[in-house]
Specification:
The structure holds two protein chains of two kinds. By secondary structure, chain A is α/β, with parallel strands linked by helices. Chain A has four domains: 6-249, 3-Layer(aba) Sandwich (Rossmann fold); 270-343 and 417-504, Rossmann fold; 531-567 and 702-896, no CATH class; 577-681, 3-Layer(aba) Sandwich (D-Maltodextrin-Binding Protein, domain 2). In chain A, 47% of the residues lie in helices and 17% in strands. Chain A is built from 33 helices and 25 strands. The two termini of chain A are 28 Å apart. Chain B is α/β, with parallel strands linked by helices. Chain B folds into two domains: 2-44 and 171-371, no CATH class; 53-152, abc type-2 transporter like fold. Chain B contains 14 helices and five strands. Chain B has helices at 2-20, 23-43, 62-69, 87-92, 106-111, 127-148, 172-203, 205-210, 216-246, 255-279, 283-299, 312-318, 322-334, 340-371; strands at 53-57, 80-81, 98-102, 117-123, 159-165. In chain B, strands 2-1-3-4 form a four-stranded mixed sheet. Classes of the chains: A alpha/beta, B alpha/beta. At the A-B interface, helix 12, helix 20, strand 24, helix 24 and strand 25 of A face helix 1, helix 2, helix 4, strand 4 and helix 6 of B. Chain A: Residues 670-900 form the ABC transmembrane type-2 domain. Chain A: It is a multi-pass membrane protein.
C-alpha cells in the first residue's frame, strides 16, 4: 500500500522501434489534480493509456489504485473505479445517440439500475448545463458540449481515478474555462477523487496541484507548479518548461521575429461580402464580411462550431456559398478555377494527407499535382525548412501530431501560394512546436508577402496576428487589431475580451450552477459475467442501428428483393432455346422430322440455315444454341430403311445448358420415332423391352423455383447479416470508442454477444419476411416443421453474424472488413453450400470449405423443412453442426479481439 | 491536356502505393484469383459427376447386377445397395440424389416381353444434377438391356448424332473456371474502387485534393485506371496460369482480345463501384448495397444459369448490368473463338453503360462529399 493514485517503476514502452516510455519511475499522489505536461510524442498518452489499462504493459511495474495492472483480475476490479477519456474531442462518444442515451449506456456498463441512472444523469446534465440538450445527438453538439458530455460519461460511476488525455485541446477559451470550473465543483464534492490530466496549455497547468513534466519518454521534473518554476528559475510555467528541456531541443528558442509588414497595393487578397452558408434550416455562416490585405496575418477566433471552418471551406471553393460573394485577388471565386487554386494553400483541421504514403511521397505527390518545375529540389527544400528530413521515409500515422502539422504546412506551401488558409493549424501542438510554427508563418508573411488566414483557440497566437475577428453562431461579432479590441473593452489581454464578447452573444448562459450533493460511493463486487453489461452494448448497438434508417432498410428489404430476383432468375429450367434447321433434303419426310421440334416449349425456331458456313457462324455468334442438320437424301434413305444420320449441333459454351439440350433432343427424337411407327404401322411399340418411370420427388413439376427459394434464403441469411455485423467492431476501432470496451470492466464475451444480439434479431426478422415472401409470392410453403425451421434459422443467423464479428475483430479498417467479408463469404456461400451444386457431389478442397461453412449445413435444414417435409428428428444433426460453427466463430472472435492495445 | 494526363497518372500511382500498404487487401486479391478460382472450378461442377446413387435391387439376377454395374464413375459414385424400407429416409437426408428401384422378377419379365417398369426416384431439389442425371441413368439402363437382350430391342429408323460444339466433352470445369475469373473481377473491382473512395472521404483526403488543381473527373479516372490495372493484370495471370495451365482449359479465342474487352469491362465496373460509393453515406451502407449488387451481377449474368431461362422482364433488366454483356462476349471469345466482328455490339454496350455510370458518379461526386460532412 503506497496510497498513490498511479505508481510506475521502470516502465518502458515501445511501438515497433520507437521508444515511447524510457524506464519511467513516477508516483502520482492521490486525491489531487495532477497534470502531465510536455511536447507531443513524449509518451504522455502512452502513460495515461497504460494507467487506464487500455494498453498492455510491456516492461516494468505499474500499480493503479494500489493494485498491480499486470493482473487481469485487478484490471477488471480497477476498471470499475477508473474513468478514462481518450484524446480527441468526443472520441469515446456515439455520435448518433443523444446526450441522455450516451450517458445511459455508460451507466449500464457500470451496472447501475434504471432509477439510479436516471438520478445521476439528471444531476450531471444539470450541473454541466447540458440539460436543455439532453435529446440532441452527440454528433451535433459543439466541441465544448461534447467535452462536457465526455466528462459526464466519465463521472457517472463515481470513479476514484479520472484520467483525461488532453481534454481541452481544440476547445475555445470560454468552454475551456467552464470545463475547469466544472472540474473544480466535481472535485469539491468528492475530495478523495484523483484526477490526472495531460495538457498542452501551460496556463491550465498553473491551476493543477501537482505536475510532471515529460520529454522524450522520460520525466524531467515533478512537483507543484511553484516548485517547478523555482527549480527552473523562470517566471512562467511555459518558460520553465523550455528551460527544463535539454539544450539541443531548445533550438530556435527566443523572441518572435518582429518585422514590419510591407505595404501592399492592388485589391485585397481575400474579400467576403455577405457570405452565407445554410445546411437545411441551419445557418452555419450568416452574412459575414471581411477584407484581408495582401501579406496580412488574419486570425479567426470563435467558439467551436461557430462557422469558422465552413467560412474557410467556402473561400477554398470546397463549399459553394448559399448567398453572398467571396473574392480572391479581386476576382470572384469560381469552383473549378485551376489558376486560383495554384495560388492558394489550404490546411484542414483534421489531418488530411495520405497516412499510407511516406512523408516524402506525400510531398512529392503535392509537388507534382501542382506541376512544380524542380520537384526533387523543392521537396528537399521543404523538408529542410520544416525539419522533416529525419522522418522522410516514415508514414505520417506513426508521427506525433506536431510533426504531422509541420508536414501539412509544408504540403500546403510547396507550390509557393500567395494565400494560406489554415484551419486550426496548431490545435494539439505543444508550445515549443507552436513557436517554431509561428516563426515560419511570420517569415512567410513579412518576407514573402504571403497572406495568411488562420483560425485558432490560442490567445497568445491571436496576439501575434495583424488583425483578428471574433465569430459566434455564424456571425462576426468584432473585428480589428488585437490592440484595438483590447482597448475598446479596456482590458489588457485578449482572453477576457473574447469571453466577454461571447457571453454577450449569449453563449454560456445556459450554465446551471446546480449544487452537487455528495452521495455514498457504491463499490459492488465486479462480476465476471454480467448480463447487464452485455445488455448495455446490445441496447446501444440496437439504437445505432435504428437511427441509421437507410442501413436498416437495406438490411431488411435487400434480402426480399434478392429473393424475388433469384427465385425467378436462378433457373435451371432450360426453355425457349433458339434453334434453326439446315434442311438439305426439303422433302415431306424431312419436314415431318423437323416438325417434331416445333411446338415444344423447350425450343424456339429461328430462320432456317442455308449453308454449312452459316451454321457455324450463327452458332459462333451465340444466336443459335442448337442447329439441326438434315442430310440430303434423308427422305429416300428413310423409306429404304437405310437409317439416315441427322446431325445435331449443340452450343457447348455453357455445359449445363448443352447437357440439358442433349436430353431434350434425345427425347424428341424418340417421340418422333414413335410417331413415325404409328404412321407407318398403326401401332406404337417401344424400342426397348423395359420402361423407366422417373419420379421427381419433393418437386413434382421439376421447377427450379421450388428448389431455389429455400436455397436463396440460405444465401440471404449468410451474406446480409455477415456484412452488417462485419463493421460492428472495426467501426469502434476506427472511431476510437473501442476505448470504452478497453477501459471498463466489460468482458470480451459480453462485448461481442452484446454487439451480436441486435444483428441476430434483424436477421431473424429478415428470415420471417423471407418465409412469408416465399409463401405469398412463390407459393412455396414450409411442408415440414415450421418450428424446426425457425429454430434452425436462429442458430444459423447466430453463426453468420458470428462470422461477421470474427472478421470485424481481426481486421483493422472498415475497408478491409467489407472486402474480407464479401470475398470470404460469397465464394463458399454461392459455390459450396448446395445452392448450385449439391454438397454430396462436391469434390476436392471445395467440399471441405463447404463443410466448414455453416451455409452448407443450413441448406439441408432449409430445403428439408421447405420441400421435403422434414422435422427435428431428421434435421437436428445439421442444426447441431451449425450451432457448433457459431461457437467456433464467437470463440475465434474472442481470440482475435484484444482487451488491451499494444 | 498533357498536364491533365500527368495528374491522372500521379494520382493513380498514389492509389497503387495505398494498395501496396495494405497487406490484407493484397492477400485477398491473390487468394481470389488463385485458390478461389481453382477450388470452385475443380470442386463445384455442374455436370453430373460423382452423383450419389443408391439401388434397391429386388430382382437380384444377372441382369439387375449388370445394370447396377453400368452406373460408372466418373458420372456416379459407386452405387450403394439399400433396402426398400431405407429408401425414403436416405433420399430425405440428401444422401443420394438418385435411387434406382429394380422390381422383383425383373429379368423374368424382360424375357417374357412383359415390359417391366424400373422406378427412378430423383431428389428434384438438386436442380443442377437431377434432370441431366436422370436422363443419363435412363440411357445407361436402356443401353444395358438392349445389349443384354438385343433380340427384344428394335432398331431406330433414324440415327440422331448429337455433337457439342466449342466444348466437345461438355466439361463444366472449363466453363466454371472462366466464369469464376469474371465473377471475381466484378466483385473486386466494385469493392476496391468504391471502398477506396469512401475511405478517402472519411479521412478527408478527397477534400484536400479538391483544393489543389485537381478535378473530380481526374480523381475518378485515376482510381479507375489504377485499381483496374491491378485487377486486369491479376485476372490475366489467373486466366493464363490457373485456368490454362493448372486446370488445363484450352482457350479457343484470342487472349489479347479478351484482355482488351476486360479493360473496357473494368472501366464500367469500377465506375459502378464509385457510383455506389457516392450514393452511400458510410461504409456500412456501402457494404449493404454492394453485397446484393455483386451477387445479382454474378448470379444473373448468364455465367451461372442460362440467360434464356430467366423471366423476360428480368432479362431486360439485366441488360443494364455490364456483367451480362461481358459474360456473353467472353463465352464468344474464349469458347467459340469469336473475333471483334462478332463481339463489337457487347463492347459498345459495355462502354456505354460504363460511361453512364461514370457520368452519374461525377454528378453525385461533390454532393456526396458535402452530404457526408
Amino acid at each position: 500500500m503506497t496510497g498513490a493514485a498511479i505508481a510506475l517503476a521502470g516502465v518502458t514502452h515501445r511501438y515497433g522501434r520507437t521508444l515511447a516510455l524510457d524506464n519511467v519511475d513516477l508516483v502520482v499522489p492521490p486525491g489531487c489534480m495532477a497534470g502531465l505536461i510536455g511536447p507531443d510524442g513524449v509518451g504522455k498518452s502512452t502513460l495515461l493509456s497504460l494507467a487506464a489499462g487500455v494498453t498492455r504493459l510491456q516492461g516494468g511495474t505499474l500499480a493503479v489504485l494500489d493494485g498491480d495492472m499486470a493482473q487481469a483480475g485487478w484490471r477488471r476490479e480497477a476498471g470499475a473505479r477508473i474513468a478514462y477519456m481518450p484524446q480527441g474531442l468526443g472520441r469515446n462518444l456515439y455520435p448518433t445517440l443523444s446526450v441522455r442515451e450516451n450517458l445511459d449506456f455508460f451507466g449500464r456498463l457500470f451496472g447501475q439500475g434504471g432509477t439510479e441512472r436516471a438520478e445521476r444523469i439528471a444531476e450531471l446534465i444539470a450541473a454541466t448545463g447540458l440539460a436543455p440538450f439532453a435529446d440532441r445527438p452527440a454528433g451535433k453538439l459543439s466541441g465544448g458540449m461534447k467535452q462536457k458530455l465526455g466528462i459526464c460519461a466519465a463521472l457517472i460511476h463515481d470513479p476514484d481515478l479520472v484520467i483525461l488525455d488532453e481534454p481541452t485541446t481544440g476547445v475555445d477559451p470560454l468552454s475551456r474555462r467552464q470545463f475547469w470550473e466544472l472540474m473544480d465543483r466535481l472535485r469539491a464534492r468528492r475530495p478523495s477523487m484523483s484526477v490526472i490530466v495531460a495538457t498542452a496549455y501551460m496556463e491550465e497547468a498553473e491551476r493543477f496541484d501537482w505536475l510532471a513534466a515529460m520529454n522524450a519518454g522520460r520525466v524531467l521534473a515533478t512537483g507543484s507548479p511553484d516548485a517547478i518554476r523555482q527549480q527552473a528559475g523562470e517566471e512562467t510555467l511555459e518558460r520553465a518548461f523550455v528551460a527544463l528541456l535539454p539544450e539541443a531541443e531548445r533550438a530556435g528558442d527566443g523572441p518572435m521575429p518582429d518585422l514590419p509588414r510591407r505595404p501592399s497595393e492592388g485589391p485585397p487578397a481575400i474579400e467576403a461580402t455577405g457570405l452565407t452558408r445554410r445546411f437545411g434550416d441551419f445557418v452555419a455562416v450568416d452574412h459575414v464580411n471581411f477584407r484581408i490585405e495582401k501579406g496580412e496575418i488574419f486570425g479567426f477566433l470563435g467558439s467551436n462550431g461557430c462557422g469558422k471552418s465552413t467560412t474557410m471551406k467556402m473561400l477554398t471553393g470546397l463549399l459553394p456559398a448559399s448567398e453572398g460573394e467571396a473574392k480572391l485577388f479581386g476576382a470572384p471565386l469560381a469552383g473549378d478555377d485551376m489558376g486560383t487554386r495554384k495560388r492558394v494553400g489550404y490546411m484542414s483541421q483534421a489531418f488530411s494527407l495520405y497516412a499510407e504514403l511516406t512523408v516524402r511521397q506525400n510531398l512529392d505527390l503535392h509537388a507534382r499535382l501542382f506541376e512544380i518545375d524542380d520537384v526533387a529540389g523543392r521537396v528537399a527544400e521543404m523538408m529542410a525548412r520544416f525539419d522533416l528530413a529525419e522522418v522522410s521515409e516514415a508514414r505520417p500515422e506513426s508521427l506525433p501530431l506536431g510533426i504531422r502539422q509541420r508536414l501539412q504546412l509544408a504540403a500546403s506551401l510547396i507550390h509557393r501560394p500567395e494565400i494560406l488558409i489554415l484551419d486550426e493549424p496548431t490545435s494539439g501542438v505543444d508550445p515549443v512546436a507552436r513557436d517554431g510554427f509561428w516563426r515560419q508563418l511570420i517569415t512567410l508573411s513579412r518576407q514573402d508577402g504571403v497572406t495568411i488566414f488562420l483560425s485558432t483557440h490560442f490567445m497568445n497566437e491571436a496576439e501575434r496576428c495583424d488583425r483578428i475577428s471574433l465569430m459566434h453562431a455564424g456571425r462576426v461579432l468584432a473585428i480589428g487589431t488585437p490592440a484595438e479590441l483590447k482597448q475598446a473593452r479596456g482590458m489588457d489581454s485578449l482572453e477576457p475580451v473574447f469571453i466577454a464578447v461571447l457571453e454577450e452573444a449569449g453563449m454560456g448562459r445556459d450554465e446551471g450552477a446546480v449544487e452537487l450533493a455528495d452521495r455514498p460511493t457504491h463499490v459492488g463486487r465486479v462480476r465476471r459475467f454480467d448480463p447487464g453489461r452485455l445488455w448495455a452494448y446490445a441496447w446501444r448497438e440496437a439504437l445505432e442501428l435504428v437511427r441509421d434508417r437507410a442501413r436498416l432498410a437495406f438490411a431488411l428489404l435487400g434480402p426480399i428483393l434478392l429473393l424475388l430476383a433469384f427465385g425467378y432468375g436462378i433457373s435451371f429450367d432450360v426453355e425457349d432455346l433458339p434453334y434453326a434447321a439446315f434442311d438439305q433434303d426439303q422433302t415431306v419426310q424431312s419436314r415431318q422430322f423437323l416438325e417434331s421440334f416445333e411446338g415444344s416449349r423447350y425450343f424456339d425456331r429461328q430462320a432456317p440455315i442455308g449453308s454449312a458456313d452459316e451454321l457455324d457462324r450463327r452458332l459462333a455468334t451465340g444466336e443459335l444454341k442448337l442447329a439441326i442438320e438434315v442430310p440430303p437424301e434423308f427422305g429416300r434413305d428413310l423409306m429404304r430403311e437405310r437409317v439416315p444420320e441427322v446431325g445435331v449441333w449443340v452450343d457447348g459454351a455453357m455445359p449445363f445448358r448443352a447437357e440439358t439440350t442433349r436430353g431434350y433432343v434425345q427425347g424428341i427424337a424418340q417421340s418422333y420415332l414413335a410417331d413415325a411407327q404409328m404412321r407407318t404401322q398403326g401401332v406404337s411399340t417401344s424400342l426397348y423391352p423395359i420402361s423407366i418411370e422417373p419420379r421427381y420427388r419433393y418437386n413434382q413439376a421439376f421447377k427450379s423455383v421450388n428448389a431455389m427459394v429455400p436455397s436463396v434464403i440460405m444465401l440471404m441469411l449468410v451474406l446480409i447479416p455477415a456484412i452488417t455485423t462485419a463493421l460492428g467492431v472495426v467501426k469502434e476501432k476506427e472511431s476510437g470508442s473501442i476505448s470504452n470496451f478497453q477501459s471498463t470492466p466489460v468482458t470480451r464475451l459480453e462485448f461481442l454477444l452484446g454487439k451480436q444480439l441486435p444483428y441476430v434479431a434483424i436477421a431473424f426478422a429478415s428470415f420471417v419476411t423471407l418465409v412469408i415472401t416465399a409463401y405469398l409470392v412463390f407459393g412455396v410453403p414450409v411442408k415440414g416443421s415450421m418450428l424446426t425451421l425457425a429454430f434452425g434459422s436462429l442458430v444459423y443467423v447466430c453463426a453468420t453474424t458470428g462470422f461477421g464479428l470474427f472478421v470485424s475483430s481481426f481486421v483493422q479498417s472498415q475497408v478491409a472488413a467489407v472486402f474480407a467479408t464479401a470475398i470470404i463469404a460469397i465464394i463458399p456461400a454461392v459455390n459450396f453450400s448446395g445452392l448450385l451444386v449439391p454438397v454430396s457431389s462436391l469434390t476436392g478442397a471445395g467440399r471441405y470449405i463447404g463443410l466448414a461453412f455453416p451455409a452448407s449445413w443450413y441448406q439441408q435444414v432449409s430445403v428439408g423443412a421447405f420441400t421435403k417435409a422434414l422435422g427435428f428428428a431428421e434435421l437436428w444433426r445439421d442444426i447441431a453442426v451449425t450451432g457448433l460453427l457459431a461457437l467456433v466463430f464467437i470463440g475465434a472472435a474472442m481470440l482475435a479481439l484484444r482487451k488491451q492495445g499494444a | 491536356m498533357l498536364a491533365r494526363l500527368m495528374r491522372i497518372w500521379r494520382l493513380g500511382i498514389k492509389e497503387l502505393y495505398s494498395l501496396k500498404a495494405d497487406p490484407v487487401l493484397v492477400a485477398l486479391i491473390v487468394y481470389t484469383f488463385t485458390i478461389a478460382v481453382y477450388t470452385v472450378a475443380s470442386g463445384a461442377k455442374f455436370e453430373v459427376e460423382n452423383a450419389a446413387v443408391a439401388v434397391v435391387d429386388e430382382d437380384q439376377t444377372a441382369l439387375s447386377r449388370r445394370m447396377r454395374d453400368a452406373l460408372l464413375k466418373p458420372f456416379f459414385k459407386e452405387p450403394v445397395l439399400i433396402g426398400a424400407s431405407e429408401m425414403d429416409r436416405a433420399i430425405d437426408e440428401g444422401r443420394y440424389v438418385f435411387v434406382v428401384q429394380i422390381p422383383p422378377k425383373f429379368e423374368h419379365d424382360v424375357i417374357a416381353g412383359r415390359d417391366p417398369v424400373i422406378q427412378l426416384d430423383i431428389d428434384a431439389t438438386a436442380m443442377s444434377q437431377a434432370g441431366n442425371g436422370a436422363s443419363y441413368i435412363q440411357n445407361i439402363l436402356l443401353q444395358e438391356v438392349a445389349a443384354a437382350y438385343p433380340s427384344s430391342t428394335g432398331t431406330a429408323p433414324v440415327s440422331v448424332v448429337i455433337h457439342a460444339k466449342f466444348n466437345p466433352n461438355l466439361k463444366s470445369e472449363w466453363f466454371n473456371a472462366v466464369m469464376q475469373v469474371i465473377n471475381n473481377v466484378t466483385m473486386l473491382a466494385v469493392i476496391l474502387s468504391g471502398a477506396a473512395l469512401i475511405r478517402e472521404r472519411e479521412h478527408g483526403t478527397i477534400e484536400h485534393l479538391l483544393v489543389m488543381p485537381v478535378t473530380p473527373t481526374e480523381i475518378m479516372l485515376a482510381k479507375i485506371w489504377a485499381n483496374g490495372l491491378v485487377i486486369v493484370v491479376a485476372a490475366t495471370l489467373s486466366l493464363v496460369v490457373v485456368v490454362e495451365r493448372l486446370l488445363g482449359v484450352p482457350v479457343a479465342g484470342s487472349v489479347p482480345l479478351f484482355v482488351g474487352a476486360m479493360v473496357i469491362y473494368q472501366f464500367s465496373v469500377t465506375a459502378l463501384g464509385i457510383l455506389i460509393a457516392t450514393v452511400s453515406s458510410s461504409m456500412g451502407q456501402f457494404g449493404l448495397i454492394v453485397m446484393p449488387v455483386i451477387i445479382m451481377m454474378n448470379l444473373l449474368s448468364g455465367s451461372t444459369t442460362p440467360m434464356e431461362s430467366m423471366p423476360e422482364g428480368l432479362q431486360y433488366a439485366m441488360q443494364l448490368s455490364p456483367s451480362t454483356h461481358f459474360v456473353a462476349l467472353s463465352q464468344a471469345i474464349l469458347y467459340r473463338g469469336a473475333g471483334l466482328s462478332i463481339i463489337w455490339p457487347q463492347l459498345l454496350a459495355l462502354a456505354g453503360i460504363g460511361l453512364a455510370f461514370f457520368a452519374l458518379a461525377r454528378l453525385r461526386f461533390r454532393k456526396a462529399l458535402q452530404a457526408a460532412q
